[in-house]
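Obj: model holo form, ligand = iron/sulfur cluster.
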Amino acid sequence: MSHSVQAKAQFNFNKLQKRLRRQTGQAVMDFNMIEEGDRIMVCLSGGKDSYTLLEMLKHLQRVAPIKFELFVVNLDQKQPGFPEHVLPEYLDRQDVEYKIVEEDTYSIVTDIIPEGKTTCSLCSRLRRGILYRTAKELGATKIALGHHRDDMIETLFLNMFYGGKLKSMPAKLMSDNGEHMVIRPLAYCKEADIEQYAIHQAYPIIPCNLCGSQENLQRKHTKAMLAKWNEEHPGRIESIFTAMQNVVPSHLADNELFDFKHLKTGEVVDGGDIALDKPDIPKQPATAPEQESAEVVTINLS
Ligand code: SF4
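Output (holo structure tokens):
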């Protein structure tokens, strides 16, 4: 590679890294994901997203004006061919506390679920239970997962298409029993950026199909639909994600969310009066504002 090509590649990588760091910092700040004294359990599966998550949080830990701890947990589910040595070898080089939890959920799932049926729902329920238990045992105050913006958008459409609900995957979530706060610091990061970053960093990726389960077909179709839209209408994905942050309950149809029944003459409803107008749809997609220059992120103390 010539010197100028090398320099250009390095420049592009620096820009990419800067963008991922900024977006992570922004999401952490917008959702108040991390607070002084937090002890955060980072779930590392060995996929591109979780490696990137760990890297972003380590950077944040170095530059943030607050102190928080990180430790890594990987769940070895005893899937056939799981390369047990890969993560310990990687983590030993990272100067981070970690624990590999070994639980044979693979046998439980294959014993219970008849062959050919989808195993993901039981498998992920078991995994969630083990991770929550581990978080408690190790004194975690938050659990960080590597889901990104595109996971959130796909989930939004999956819930609409198959669940009849307008809901996605939250950037911050309290577990049903109120014990565990789950955070998704990569909520603003694009999957394509994470993919590029992971390639550049040459992470030792562990394949995600070791369990032999087929990738969820509905998610695959939704992903393909979104990719096609993005190709045909650049900016559409950004616009969808911006829309997820600009919800107008008075202009949907959920009586629980907005009290249509008790709406009285004289009340002002913030959301735009378009009752007698044609909806004013902008010609260009609405995209979230980009702030390329801010490298160092700050976190609000609250
Ligand atoms: S793909 Fe395999 S490991 Fe992942 S949730 Fe489904 S059954 Fe479990």
